[in-house]
Amino acid sequence: MLTTLVSMEETKWLSEDEREAWLALVSIMFRLPGAVEGQLRSEEDMSLAEYLVLAMLSEAPDHRHKMSALATATNTSQSRLSRIVARMEKDGLVTRAGRQDDRRVVIAEITPAGLERLREAAPAHVRHVREIVFDRLAPEQVGQLSEIGRALNRGSNTRGAMGLDCPA
Fold first, then answer.
1. Which class in CATH covers the domain with range 44-118?
2. Is the pTM here over 0.90, yes or no?
3. Which residues, by range, are in coiled-coil regions (predicted)?
4. CA atoms of 50 and 130, how far apart (whole Å)
5. Is 36 helix (H, G, I), strand (E, B) or coil?
6. Is pLDDT above 60 for 17?
7. Run of H or E including 30
């Protein structure tokens, strides 16, 4: 009990502004993924993770990435990504292969069918993201949002979709 009292006394509590910002962030964390996922599932019959896999691969200069880098970019575990990519592989959207010089490294590559699938899904997805995020922000807020994201991601073990730095 004494430990609890000491730690409570030593805790630097959130200011009113910090509390308001935290609650706004929590609301975004819970509501936004569901809204994005819902649009993709209902209109495009794909998950956000599947969309991100296709998008990250399509943006790579050679349309290929290490699975480990792809897991980081899509903010998912390697085991979950492996299951997602296996399903997408069955649908002919991506392929996987071990690297010749290091069989421990698995490379994912988007197929022409995967590129086409992304081309079909991207317009509605981008319209939805613009509607629920960017149309509600002033241009300077977009820059602030980027800065906030970078600051919150700094020091974490993930780089996220913006920082994919491990091409195949």
1. mainly alpha
2. no
3. none
4. 19
5. helix
6. yes
7. helix 16-39
